[in-house]
Amino acid sequence: MAGGKENARQKMINLMYLVFIAMLALNMSKEVLMTFGEIEREVSKSSKSLKASNNAALSVMSSSAKNDSIVWYAPYETVSKIAAATDELVDFINKKGNQLVPVSETNPDQIFKRPIKIKENEYGRTINGNIPETLGDYERMDNSQAYDELLFINGTEDGYTDAGREFVRLVNNFRNVSIDAIENSNIGSNDTIIKKRWEESTAALKNLVESSFNTDPVKVGKSEDKVKSWLHFNFEGFPEIASTTKITLLEEDALNVVKTLVSNVNEIILGENLSTLRAIPLNVNVFYENSKLEGSIALGKYDETFVASKVKIKNGNGPMKEYRAIDVMENGEVVLEKLNLNVGSAGAKKLTGEIIFVRTENGEDVEKSIPIDHEYFVNPPLANVSNKDMNIVYEDIENVLNITMPGVSNDNIQIISPPTIKPGKNGEFIMVNQKKGRTGKVSIVVKDKLTDFTSPPVVFDVVAVPDPFASFSQKGDKFSANQILTGKIGGTFNNERLDNSLQLRVSEFKVRIGLRNLGVVRNTNGAFNDRLKSEIKKARRGTQITISDIVFSSSKIDKGRKSLFSQNQVVLTVR
């Protein structure tokens, strides 16, 4: 392309050649784009966890500042200033409806950090051992247009859009606020040892901030004027996925500054004395047979950055197993669910082992261990079933049952069989109109809906409700006419619980005064009607009034079966 006069055709060929070379320079390989995408995905997950962890640590420090302001107010003030600058930067990057970000078809929510494009996982690609339905379409994020238009514009002094200018301002603000807070902190002003430790740590903290958030212009050529601004050098002309990844890494760097500062401050003030630590099992007390071991083992000192080197656990009669602490510890606790251990059969079990730290002493790595020694119990998944009103269940009536399972709320109890049991009031269950069937027994099977544990059957005998005995409300053998007139026929099973459950009513009965049959009395609930009272008043001394064929009913008796009949008759003698 050098030398000689070029005709129009040659000029066109040369221009196409230049365009082709530029396209080759910009067109990153599929593997590189996917690598950027996977880095962005993992760092984004880490940032969310970091933010939650930092908020929890800052909350603890805030409480400490209220309870012991002499020691903790200065540390809390220092950390909270940097945390606030971090939140301002991270919120600007991720907040929806950012007025400095133009609405576009690919970014309708106006988020500064470009959202990851998504596609269906049509080839069943595996990520972290799983095959997700969708995954990042990083190959479509291979051009620089989105960020170039968002951050840069010709005709301004710095070449930035308002969004680009605000982004740079917030990065500079985070750096300046962090350096100022570290340099002017009053940590340890009342304790010379703490102050000395703090002053020794500030250089490393400042270096961490300055190295990660340096926005000075970057020299890109040999001559002194060959420089680019920090924003142009890092974001102009880069593929969209690369710029998104850089922004996500910047977020993580800011959050890591807060995390490192919190960790340093806690260690400076509290120190680290392993001999004072104790392993404290939490919620490791009672389990069902063959369920998974759950709960956690906490250390006496709480610090989410406090992670051991390895953990050894022996559960019951099982072997001693060794785990990497990073795989099984969270927030200074061993999370037992992550061990994937089964508690096994019923009985008392021992949980033993040790949490091991590696510390450097006299230039050599030395293991320091904290013992684990805890006993817990495993219950068989038995359901406790009792009949509130009776010792057995009766055929064709409502039986009120109390059904519980150890450690299971009433809301999560499910009756597998029989279908005649329905939920009642106040956590009770009602067995409605159970039939005797061929065996004369009913097996009640209960399930915990949360864990799917099913109890062994609890067997009850099903018996017919016996016919009750008739009784008269007045006591004695002989009665005055007035006592008879005001009395009532009733019924009893001679069983207090059955009487209380069924609360019998008298449906009808026959009356004979002397040798005269006076017919059937109905719907008086055992009282004498006016016609009978008139006849009773006429009865002479010594006359016998016989009440027979007494029929009883109850609201809890199956309406489809016959009523209950008295096993006896009542004979009243007039005196």
Q: How would you characterize this protein structure?
A:
It is a single chain. The chain is an alpha+beta fold and 575 residues long. The chain has 4 domains: 22-270, no CATH class; 276-376, Immunoglobulin-like (Sandwich); 384-463, Immunoglobulin-like (Sandwich); 469-574. It is built from 12 helices and 29 strands. Strands 23, 25, 26, 27, 28 and 29 form a 6-stranded mixed β-sheet that branches. Helix 3 (69-94) runs antiparallel to helix 5 (162-183). The chain is elongated, with a radius of gyration of 42 Å. It starts with 7 loop residues before the first helix and ends with a strand. 27% of the residues are buried. The model is unreliable at 1-6 and 17-27 (pLDDT under 50).
Average per-residue pLDDT, rounded, comes to 81
Structural class: alpha+beta
Count of discrete alpha- or pi-helical segments spanning 4 or more residues: 12
Tally of DSSP β-strands: 29
Major sheet: size, sense and barrel closure?
6 strands, mixed
Residue share in helices? 25-40%
Number of domains: 4
Shape estimate: elongated
Strand content: 25-35%
Low-confidence stretches: 1-6, 17-27
Distance between the termini: 143 Å
Question: From the alpha-carbon coordinates, what is the Rg to the nearest angstrom?
Answer: 42 Å
